[in-house]
Each structure stands twice: as C-alpha cells, then as structure tokens.
Amino acid sequence: MCAQPAGYPIGKPSTAEDCLNLNVTTPTGKHDELPVIVWVHGGSLMYGMGDLYRADRLAAGGAVVVSMNYRLGATSFLTHPSLPDSGGLALDDQRAALRWVRQNIAAFGGDPGKVTIMGQSGGGFAVCGHLASPASAGLFQRAIIQSAPCADASRTKAEALAESSEVIKKAGCADASDVASCLRDLPMAKLLEAYGTQREPRPYSGTPSLPLPVDQALRTGRFNRVPVLVGVNHDEENGMILGLELATGKPMAATDYRPAITEAYGKNAAAVLRRYPLGNSAGRTLATVKTDSTWSAPTLDTARALSRWTSTRMFEFAEQRTPWYAGTPKPSFPAAAQHMAELPYLFDLTLFEKLSLQQSTLANRLIATWTRFARTGDPNGGGEQPWPLLRDNGSQAGWHVQSLTSGTWKRADYAQDHHYRFWTTLNH
C-alpha cells in the first residue's frame, strides 16, 4: 500500500513509497478476450489499497479484474512551484496502470479494447478526472462511477497552493531555500503528520492533463465520451453519522439537530429545517439531509451533464438489509444503503459481515450486470427489468434512475425522494 496515515478502516498506516503495484484476478480456466474492469479504490484519495478488495467473485462473473495502488494524500497532492507536475500524481499513477493494462492484459485473457475504469468514492472522483483528462483518452472504453458526484472531482490551483502552503509550514519547510529538497528529506511519518488525516484532496485544473474543471468539462462535452454507468447509494450519509456514533459511544441528541443544520447550511438553514423536520432519530434525519444535498442531487446533476453527450445510465443502490461492519456494535438505526454498502456485493471484503443467501443472490445479479456493461457498454439483460438511458430532454420523464434492490429492479422516484428541485434551487 502507499503512504497513508492511521485512522480509517479501509486503509492501514504506512510510510511506504515503493508502492505502485497492481493485482490481476482472472476467472478459473482458460479464457480469451474477456472484458477488463480496472478498479480504483476509494478512501478520499487519502487512504486505501487495492489488496483490500478481493476480486475473485467479480472475476468469476466473466471479467479480468485489475486493482492497483496509487499515491495518496501528501505524496500525490502537495502543490508548490518547486515541485513540477505535482498536485495530482494519483491520476498519473492510475494512467500508468491503464497503460500497463493496454500493453499486457491480453496475456491474462483480457481484451485491451474492452477496458472499463471503475471507482467508488475517492476512486470514483478519479474516474471523473479521467473522463475529463485528454491524457487518459483511449485508455478505457467505458466508465463506472460509484458514490462520486463529478462536480467535486477537481479544484483550482489556488486552492491546492493554499492547502499545501499550510502543510509545508507545518512540516517546517516554508522558509527553506529549496522547499522541494526539504520536503523530500523529511521522514515520511513527519510529512504525513503535517498533512493530517481529515483532508479531501483533488487534482487541480488548468494543466495539460486536466485543462478544465471536471464539472465544466462534462457540461460542455469536452471529455472522453465513453458509455457511463453512474450511481449513488440511497442512504450515503448513514455511514458517516453512524461512524460518529461509534466514535462517541452514543447516538446524536435531538437537541443537536438544529445546530448541526445551522452549521452545515448557514443562511439556508431555516429552509432546510422546514423541508426536513426532526424525526424520531436526529442522526437519521441529519443523514437524510446530507445524503440528499451532498450525494443524491449532485449525482443526478452529473448524470444529466453526461447524458447530453454520451450514453449514460444512472442507478441508485437502495437495498435496505445490507451487511454491517464485522465485529462492530450494532448502530442505533439501520445503516441501510450507506456509503460503501454496495462494495461487499461486488468484492470479498472482510471489513463487512458475510453475505446472507438473499444478499449473495443480489451480489450475483449486480456482478452479472456490471460485467455485461463492461462487455458491451449496456447493462441490460439477464432477465432484469429494462434499464433505459437517462435523457436530459427538458422533462423529468427522461431522468430514469434504476433502483437496485433484492427485489425487482425498477425506476426510482428519485427526484421527489431526494428533494432534487429543492436542492438545485437552494444551491443556485
């Protein structure tokens, strides 16, 4: 794994710099010209490792699966005039893996002309970046984005420099005659300490490899136009709120709901409180608000932008009886389709409880669907209900979002369920 701090369950503390390796998982037996899924792990572009995601089950669905490590946090996103080409090395590492796949995957039974780049959360934001990057053109033929609204996939150079200036000062290198040499001479542990544990780094735009902000590239059609499957989980923020509950040892108090909304939404807090009155659980109500504002509405924005230029289908993973974290006390309200909830259905993840029989059946359906998309660019088939393209033609009727559960897959009442018009009006 690549260098990263402690403090996140999907990673491990590490100071390793010799870390750019990848894993290839193939179905049993001899195969040729299988679709290839290149997995970019999540972790806020701060944490994580490819090894965590055992891909035997996904590969058994009929694909060659490649996972990778890439530089994270400080080693990828520190930006300074003395550090040429810095500020987004994670995407460079991922491109190197994609080039390796193009050159070598046929030896593993994969088709270099049927490569799907797939990522979740931080990895999903990276996929957004590759869609917008001329440097990534031709390295993949399809894309799957899970839990990553593309509007948040890049930042400005000024933002990157401001954050990095703070880190460089904490590291004791701000007054060095050669800042780059000072940073390189630091023990990795000290650099990680200076960078901290709670950042959300992104590559900055205005470079040859990312000329436009990602959201602008998608809106204007200046991106790599491949078929895209983009989606979000119905209850994304449940995981974040329940994580705080586990950390503090108690559920969120009802008296904390209004202050939390005021802190998060400022001048719009009164409108948010009217739209989302406090329910039986303060934590669950706050999670619903933040899911809708931070994940659900922006993901539909992403799908609408993409659909104007390329084949786009959107999904919502909405299964309510999902595995909880293994060996962890049960929370005060169900995690449901929280952030990461779909991952134990696609990968063998010891982080979560083992799948039940019903959950395993859903896993097989998801894997078959993802594999069909990787093979053809169309997820339809396998006896599932039709999944139309999302079309942004001036009417909500075209905004088809497929609800994925253990029952029959069908169109979600997505815009109404997540108060889409409320948030788009509030945010503009």
UniProtKB/TrEMBL annotation:
Query: Keywords assigned by UniProt?
Result: Hydrolase
All residue ranges annotated as the Carboxylesterase type B domain in the record: 11-395
Q: Which SUPFAM superfamilies does the entry link to?
A: alpha/beta-Hydrolases
Name assigned to this protein:
Carboxylic ester hydrolase
- List the Pfam families: COesterase
Q: Which domain of life is it from?
A: Bacteria
**What InterPro entries does its record include?**
AB_hydrolase_fold (IPR029058), CarbesteraseB (IPR002018), Carboxylesterase_B_AS (IPR019826), Type-B_Carboxylest/Lipase (IPR050309)
Record bears the keyword Hydrolase: yes
Q: Please tell me the species this chain comes from.
A: Nonomuraea gerenzanensis
